[in-house]
Amino acid sequence: MKFQAETDLVETLKASIKEIFHRSRVKIFEEVSLGYGIADIVVSEICLDFNKSKELKSLDIHDINVFVIIQESGTISLSDVIELTRCNRRIILRSISNLINHGYIEEQNGVFQMSRNYELSFVKNFAIEAKLKDWKRALKQAYRYKWFAEYSFVVLDEYYSKPALRNIAIFEKYNVGLASVSVDGKLTRHFNPTPQPPLDLKMQMLFSEKIKFYELAK
Predict the structure, then answer these.
(1) Residue 93 sits in which domain range?
(2) Of 13, 78, 122, 203, which one is least surrounded by beta carbons within 10 A?
């Protein structure tokens, strides 16, 4: 038997994942968008002690860009931040204000410097791209999730999985996991990728902020 729609596959996959991960600190997020496509599912091991203050505004991508620039520069002036980001002065001032309120940066003698490091709200992530049968498109998309996730997987309908299995060497080459799921919920992992450090700190931070938003919205 085969799935009639991709949404059915995702729902079955989600149920199978929940049976595997029982720990309270493991969370399942759906349709995660960070600018590199939308991951169908991200399984995250959450830090137990991350800051859940509802009084502080979450960091957006502009805030994160400014944070990374200041972190890499050591000390930097407002004009240099604006020049490097090529963003509107008002946007940069808003980001700087938010970062100061969070206690990440401080101003001394007209320049900005770090006050404390950013702590991610997760330990590790498994990003999943689910497709009925288009394994090439799924692989391309799943590879992009390596920007923020230690593990990236493609999960296909078991009924259509044979073409991908014949090309499993490509998944091994790019270190993207391959699995299949049946309509009765049987999840089979055909290739387990080795964990790799994510490629982009900014994307990690952006997802970390999304986790905080999801958790506070409960």
Answers:
(1) 61-114
(2) 78
One domain for residues 42 and 147: yes
Q: Are residues 159 and 203 in the same domain?
A: yes
What value does the mean pLDDT of the chain take?
Answer: 92
Q: C-alpha angle with apex 75: 74 to 76, nearest 5 degrees?
A: 125
Query: What CATH code is carried by the domain that includes residue 78?
Result: 1.10.10.10
Question: 31 and 65: one domain?
Answer: no
> Residue 113 contacts by C-beta under 8 Å, 6 or more apart in sequence?
70, 74, 75, 76, 105, 106
46, 119 Cβ separation under 8 angstroms:
no
Residue 66: pLDDT band with limits 50, 70, 90: very high
The confidence band for 58, taking pLDDT boundaries of 50, 70 and 90, is confident
Tell me the torsion sign for CA atoms 197, 202, 207, 208.
Answer: positive
Q: How much helix, strand and coil, in percent to the nearest 5, is found in the chain?
A: 45, 25, 30
**N residues, the chain:** 218
Looking at the 3D structure of the chain, how many domains does it have?
A: 2
Task: Tell me the Cα Rg of the chain.
Answer: 20
Instruction: Classify residue 106 by burial, with Cβ atoms within 10 Å: 0-12, 13-18, 19+.
Output: middle
89 vs 79: CA distance, rounded Å: 9
Q: For the chain, what percent of residues have pLDDT higher than 90?
A: 80
